TrEMBL record:
Keyword Metal-binding carried by entry: yes
Annotated signal peptide: none
Residue ranges of domain Pirin C-terminal in the record: 193-289
UniProt-annotated binding residues for Fe cation: H78, H80, H122, E124
Gene3D superfamilies the UniProt entry points to: Jelly Rolls (2.60.120.10)
Protein name: Pirin
Species whose genome carries this gene: Blastococcus haudaquaticus
One Pfam family here: Pirin
Cofactor field: Fe cation
Biased composition (Basic and acidic residues): 1-10
Comment on bound cofactor: Binds 1 Fe cation per subunit.
Top-level taxon in the UniProt lineage: Bacteria
GO molecular function: metal ion binding
Bilayer-spanning residue ranges: none
Length: 322
């Protein structure tokens, strides 16, 4: 999914100087953003005061939206570099096409993982005949320097590992939780998991103390470490935790995101991740010039997106938080 803001802010991200040395409870309420012509999303990362959680650098949560009488998601071809997109649906269907030839319709519980690496273009649309509701999350993972030029590729995993215990069903999108390990390719130590709680559940989930974590209330609301987390908001947990306690009065679906704090400094602007402002300018110029670096999305009926105008101020790589 694209960042469709026509005046995107440059985000200087990464570095360890602002990573908390222990547990914290910071609520991130999110900011509503219009995605294309018909989809509104809640942007949780990057946000004021928090730019990354491990290598997770971008989190949009949308829905549930009734798209019965609308085209639903309609995101024209656009580019990416230096990142992975992790698409996760709770309801609905999305048709993914990209410039390496992928053409896949995916639905709830299926992992759509696109590694942009050196450069890729893709489009995402609700099928012409689609389910009533659209509800999910779009996540970006920053690639470490050793892998950020990897050849672009796409993975679709229709089934994922997990486990059920004490009112909690865990599905592992990325990385590992307990003995369950995702088949999705990861390039840095991280974890992403869907946590479905039954009404009245009160459970503890093991964590890696060297990771930092956040929990997004994707469906319904819950209490995380005693703090209420309303639908569409995210709670940042910091580092140093060996477990997290989760409680839900009503059925709820949470997304657990975590990973080793991302040491490298980087720049994120529009749909590009680089290491300097000069790289970002080059990516934008190449995309607008229809350079072969990004390829062509075959089968999409319509125009591709153009890169917005770059900010007047130079883009510089800095730390993880403002």
């Amino acid at each position: 999914m694209s960042n469709l803001d026509r005046r995107p802010a440059a985000r200087e991200m990464g570095g360890l100087e602002a990573t908390p040395a222990g547990p914290v409870l910071d609520l991130l309420p999110g900011k509503e953003v219009l995605l294309g012509e018909s989809t509104r999303v809640r942007r949780l990362l990057p946000t004021l005061g928090r730019r990354m959680v491990g290598a997770w650098a971008f989190v949009d949560h949308y829905g549930p939206d009734d798209v019965t009488s609308s085209p639903g998601m309609q995101v024209a071809p656009h580019p990416h570099t230096g990142l992975q997109t992790v698409s996760w649906l709770l309801q609905g269907e999305v048709h993914h096409r990209d410039s390496v030839g992928s053409d896949v319709v995916f639905g709830p519980g299926q992992l759509a993982l696109m590694t942009a690496g050196h450069g890729i273009a893709h489009a995402e649309q609700s099928p012409a005949v689609h389910p009533r509701y659209l509800h999910g999350a779009q996540l970006w993972v920053a690639l470490p320097d050793a892998h950020r030029e990897v050849a672009p590729h796409f993975e679709h995993h229709a089934t994922l590992p997990g486990f059920t215990s004490d009112g909690l069903t865990t599905t592992v999108l990325m990385g590992s939780v307990g003995d369950a390990t995702s088949p999705g390719t990861a390039y840095s130590p991280l974890v992403g998991a869907d946590l479905t709680l039954t009404a009245g559940a009160d459970v503890e989930l093991p964590l890696e103390p060297d990771f930092e974590y956040a929990v997004l209330a994707a469906g319904g609301s819950a209490t995380v470490e005693g703090a209420p987390v309303a639908h569409g908001s995210m709670l940042y947990l910091g580092t140093g935790r060996r477990t997290v306690r989760l409680r839900a009065e009503e059925a709820a679906s949470l997304l657990l995101l975590g990973g080793e704090p991302f040491e490298e400094q980087l720049v994120m602007w529009w749909n590009f991740v680089g290491r300097s402002g000069e790289e970002i300018v080059e990516y934008a110029d190449l995309w607008n010039a229809e350079d072969e670096r990004f390829g062509v999305v075959e089968g999409f009926d319509g125009d591709r997106l153009s890169a917005p105008s770059l900010p007047a101020l130079p883009l510089k790589a800095r730390g993880r938080v403002r």
